[in-house]
Amino acid sequence: MMNKKIAVIKGDGIGPEIVTEAMKVLDKVAEKYGHKFDYTQLLMGGCSIDVNGVPLTDETIAECKASDAVLMGSIGGNTTTSPWYKLPADLRPEAGLLKIRKELGLFANLRPCLLYPQLSGACPLKEEISAKGFDMLIMRELTGGLYFGARKTEEVDGVMTAVDTLSYNEKEIRRIAVKAFEVAMKRRKKVTSVDKANVLDSSRLWRKIVTEVAADYPEVELEHMLVDNSAMQLVRDPAQFDVMVTENMFGDILSDEASMITGSIGMLPSASMNETKFGLYEPSGGSAPDIAGQDKANPIATILSAAMMLRYSFDMTEEADAVEAAVTKVLEEGYRTGDIMSEGCKPVSCSQMGTLIAERV
Ligand code: NAD
User: Least buried of 2, 55, 99, 213, by fewest C-beta within 10 Å?
Assistant: First the structure.
């Protein structure tokens, strides 16, 4: 019996609909396994702008810090028509997202990419590749590297010149490497570290530190792969990967490539973690204003994000397995929301999908 405090940020658009279904599933887990989940509902994004004038308040940050984990829907609205996007950049919904990641020290982004056999028709790869299925997790460093280094644009000898800096120190590399090996221990025990060590100094340090950390995890197989080869291998033979860990920009690109080959944004969970077991869990997709408020959204990405919370923040392996198995079961039985619908399947709404999954936990 465990008692956990969960900060819940439903957010905007489809956020409230999909998070409500994830909570339905968590409640079923609590009931079945005798746990207690206490939810604190918090505002962030557009709904916070409407009430508080800012996308993220200090109270929301403090409540998140006082919780064991954060479950989030999505934030933001229609970027051309919503009045939120007439505000200065630092007051728009997305500013809240960047700020909360920074305040909570979330340096590791985890994106599992799993091809369900029932949805393999949506996979854009050749059938001989998709038939094998794949189940990998991309871990992207989120707070260092090229996106956070010093940058400038200036005229040098009469020629406009732009400079971005890619810098990593050994502490930043070590903490994400440790995270990658810890996560691999909960999966198939293989880490592929992606770099460009044939060219970049930052990659050579990356490779050295990852290799050092590997010594503490003798059960985990480590391989190093150059980023250009990794991009190719992802579409040639994705089944070879378990945990792929990489720096910020390489991860930005490879995680989008990996999510594309699964074929459905409504199925993709994600987590962002700090050094402890604390994490923020959210679907990879956005607030989908085009279908908001119509009970049409696919809640599975959010439900699988909640399963990641059980696994990585609460060490509830059996419970996480039960939720993931319930999702597979519902797909096997042919239930589909609109985004993953195919011929001969049974169409269901967002709330029906949540109920069906909760019943099968
Ligand atoms: P989006 O992911 O919201 O939507 C892209 C397409 O995917 C839409 O057709 C949408 O209907 C569909 N889709 C997304 N999630 C779905 C689900 N669960 N079920 C069924 N269909 C789904 O991306 P966008 O339209 O580029 O952005 C909309 C808003 O979301 C913007 O304000 C953007 O800034 C924001 N956004 C927020 C996050 C976040 O909260 N982390 C991430 C990305 C985008």
Answer: 2
Tens digits of residue pLDDT in 302-330: 999 999 999 999 999 999 999 999 999 99
Whole-model pTM? 0.93
Closest atom of ligand 1 relative to the 302 alpha carbon: 18
Query: Does ligand 1 lie within 6 Å of residue 339's CB atom?
Result: yes
> Where does residue 226 rank: exposed (0-12), middle (13-18), buried (19+ CB within 10 A)?
middle
Tell me if 142 sits within 8 A of 272, measured CB to CB. yes
| Of 1-10, 123-132, 231-240, the least confident | 123-132
Q: What is the maximal distance between C-alpha atoms in the chain?
A: 70
Residue 192's φ and ψ, nearest 5 degrees, are -110, 115
CA-wise closest residue to 312 among 89, 71, 128, 77: 71
Measure 217 CA to ligand 1 centroid, in angstroms. 38
pLDDT in tens, 134-166: 999 999 999 999 988 899 999 999 999 999 999
